[in-house]
């Protein structure tokens, strides 16, 4: 039986990855940081019905001693470093924390693995945000980076440190440059989930309008369930490498709104307003990925279309609000 250690297991990708690995017979450990709120473990893992199957270990990414202990105790075959301050907008109000968790935190994990489980395979959650002000219309593994936020700059540091540990110490360390991926478990502050939650509220008569920022921004949106499969495939390769994971299709926030409102039988233009409070100091206008390497070397293809994902997200938000009795 293989053992995996997932940082960020309480997040969107951590939950889907845990379910995927459990389904393949893995023993799954997850890092859990202390919180004063009782229910932090619960929500996403419970939604997937796996909260009793994962084993939690108490640690925080910024505390190297706790990370080292977590790796020592669990002795993983595979380590997935998914923990991060992952919201781009917050990275301007908390740039140092973002640097500590998203940047240095990854190096804490690399150090802990190098010292306590050097044979373990390591996955780093890199991001298409690293392309920022894009240097090519379609981005692949050789496209130069141009980060546009403290988040992207921190991810870039973590990305290059992953490459460096692979080259310096011969570690089996891979970096997945994942384009945006969403699901019913996406954090509510991200635009897709904000939209599907807004649609559900308007549909149920709980709200009349939804305020957004830049409707012209375009993203290459995939489904988290497809993307965690790519992470695992990278860990199964004999040779570690970096991979772009993307659908190859780019869609505007405006078009995402149209699809989501239409799924609930609503006209988006009657409800969406623009509020400058949701604009960013520097914007990433458009992202579109080329996942040829992942397709050729990993045999990976996305299976869930944008339309199917939008429908799933709107339906899940309607169900959540109805269950809660609004
Ligand atoms: P989420 O924001 O949903 O999850 C982040 C996770 O990190 C949570 O489990 C959170 O724990 C944990 N975390 C935050 N700070 C710490 C800390 N100091 N110590 C330990 N754990 C911590 O992110 P996603 O699941 O969406 O993304 C997973 C990873 O992939 C992230 O690194 C993200 O930046 C990256 N990524 C995501 C993309 C996407 O589109 N989703 C695209 C490209 C990269 P808690 O629950 O306690 O807050
Ligand atoms: P990101 O790509 O990691 O920053 O993911 P987000 O989902 O947070 O944002 C995607 C794009 O949607 C960005 O270009 C945002 O500027 C744009 N956007 C437009 N309105 C909003 C909004 O109200 N909230 C968020 N989070 N993003 C918005």
Summarize the structure.
By secondary structure, the chain is of the alpha/beta class. The protein is built from 11 helices and 13 strands.
- Biggest sheet strand order reads 3-2-1-4-5-6-11
| Biggest beta sheet summary | 7 strands, parallel
Strand residues, percent = 15-25%
Overall 3D geometry? globular
* Run of helices and strands: EHEHEHEHHEHEEHEEEHEEHEHH
Unreliable stretches: none
Helix fraction bin: 40-55%
**Gyration radius, rounded:** 19 Å
Q: What structural category do the secondary elements indicate?
A: alpha/beta
Can you put this structure into words, describing what you see?
The chain has 326 residues and is of the alpha/beta class. It contains eleven helices and 13 strands. The protein has helices at 12-23, 42-47, 64-74, 90-93, 95-116, 150-169, 191-203, 224-235, 253-263, 292-298, 306-323; strands at residues 3-7, 27-32, 55-58, 78-81, 121-127, 173-178, 181-182, 210-212, 218-219, 222-223, 242-245, 251-252, 272-274. Strands 3-2-1-4-5-6-11 form a seven-stranded parallel beta sheet, with helices on both faces. Helix 1 (12-23) crosses helix 8, helix 7 (191-203) runs parallel beside helix 9 (253-263) and helix 7 crosses helix 11. The chain binds NADPH dihydro-nicotinamide-adenine-dinucleotide phosphate and guanosine-5'-diphosphate. Guanosine-5'-diphosphate binds next to helix 7.
